[in-house]
From TrEMBL:
<protein>
    <recommendedName>
        <fullName>Stage 0 sporulation protein A homolog</fullName>
    </recommendedName>
</protein>
<feature type="modified residue" description="4-aspartylphosphate">
    <location>
        <position position="60"/>
    </location>
</feature>
<dbReference type="InterPro" id="IPR011006">
    <property type="entry name" value="CheY-like_superfamily"/>
</dbReference>
<dbReference type="GO" id="GO:0000156">
    <property type="term" value="F:phosphorelay response regulator activity"/>
</dbReference>
<keyword id="KW-0238">DNA-binding</keyword>
<dbReference type="Pfam" id="PF04397">
    <property type="entry name" value="LytTR"/>
</dbReference>
<feature type="domain" description="Response regulatory">
    <location>
        <begin position="3"/>
        <end position="126"/>
    </location>
</feature>
<keyword id="KW-0963">Cytoplasm</keyword>
<keyword id="KW-0010">Activator</keyword>
<comment type="function">
    <text>May play the central regulatory role in sporulation. It may be an element of the effector pathway responsible for the activation of sporulation genes in response to nutritional stress. Spo0A may act in concert with spo0H (a sigma factor) to control the expression of some genes that are critical to the sporulation process.</text>
</comment>
<keyword id="KW-0902">Two-component regulatory system</keyword>
<dbReference type="GO" id="GO:0003677">
    <property type="term" value="F:DNA binding"/>
</dbReference>
<dbReference type="InterPro" id="IPR007492">
    <property type="entry name" value="LytTR_DNA-bd_dom"/>
</dbReference>
<feature type="domain" description="HTH LytTR-type">
    <location>
        <begin position="145"/>
        <end position="243"/>
    </location>
</feature>
<dbReference type="InterPro" id="IPR046947">
    <property type="entry name" value="LytR-like"/>
</dbReference>
<dbReference type="Pfam" id="PF00072">
    <property type="entry name" value="Response_reg"/>
</dbReference>
<comment type="function">
    <text>Required for high-level post-exponential phase expression of a series of secreted proteins.</text>
</comment>
Length: 243
């Protein structure tokens, strides 16, 4: 999932940006996570230091701290090399510095007219999401699906397992913070996944990075979200060749 972050020291402007972006997410019906709106650059860095997701960052340049938005962008790049960085600021004269800092900013928005800002930010969100969900993107390993009328892009790292649904020709994906049912068959999904995924049973494909315990006697697998799935003899041998 693509996360959105704001770092802006002016309370009114931060609140305005937050509400604007939340409205855009609702209008576009995108699978986006509004992760953080803060005046403290160190709070933002602390959050992304433990998050493997790609981010879309809206940064003011003058943050009233010992680091400005340009230096913050440099530090963001240490954690999120593929993230989308957008500067939203009154300092038009500093736009050239984004090249000197080598932060590969997606855009530089000047706070002049609210209507222009709204349109500009809306366009940034659309473009960032389209690039993130594009089949040709190399940001992360992503599984793409359509549930209802909405498209979802789920990082492989967030997926616990897939299981066949009671509804014919449908599969249920269990991921961090969401469970999605969609039209598919497990045999169609397998080729789209990488080597961390294993078909442990005719009804399950699991992310082996999420295994917490394997019960050989019961032929069950406990995952890190505490869900328990079935495993066949063949599935056990795939996971534990010596068994």
């Amino acid at each position: 999932m693509l996360n959105i972050y704001i770092c802006e020291d002016n309370d009114n402007e931060r609140d305005y940006l937050s509400q604007l972006i939340k409205n855009i997410i609702l209008i576009e019906d995108y699978d986006l996570n509004f992760a953080c709106a803060t005046a403290d650059p160190y709070e933002l860095l602390n959050i992304i230091s433990t998050d493997n997701n790609t981010g879309l960052y809206f940064l003011d340049i003058d943050l009233g701290k010992d680091i400005d938005g340009l230096l913050l962008a440099q530090k963001i790049r240490q954690y999120d090399q593929r993230g989308f960085i957008v500067f939203v600021t009154t300092h038009s004269e500093m736009s050239r510095l984004t090249f000197q800092y080598k932060v590969e900013a997606m855009d530089y928005i000047i706070k002049d007219e609210p209507k222009k800002i709204n349109d500009h930010i809306h366009q940034c969100i659309i473009v960032a999401y389209q690039r993130y969900c594009s089949p040709s993107n190399n940001y992360q390993n992503i599984y793409r699906l359509t549930s209802g009328e909405k498209e979802f892009c789920i990082n492989f790292d967030e997926i616990y397992y897939f299981e066949t649904s009671e509804n014919i020709h449908k599969v249920i994906l269990h991921a961090q913070n969401q469970i999605l049912e969609f039209q598919a068959k497990l045999k169609e999904i397998e080729p789209e996944l990488d080597k961390r995924f294993c078909r442990c049973h005719r009804s399950f494909i699991i992310n082996t990075d999420k295994i917490s315990d394997i019960n050989l006697k019961e032929r069950t697998i406990t995952l890190t979200n505490d869900d328990i799935v079935l495993a066949s003899k063949t599935g056990i041998k795939k996971l534990l060749p010596s068994c």
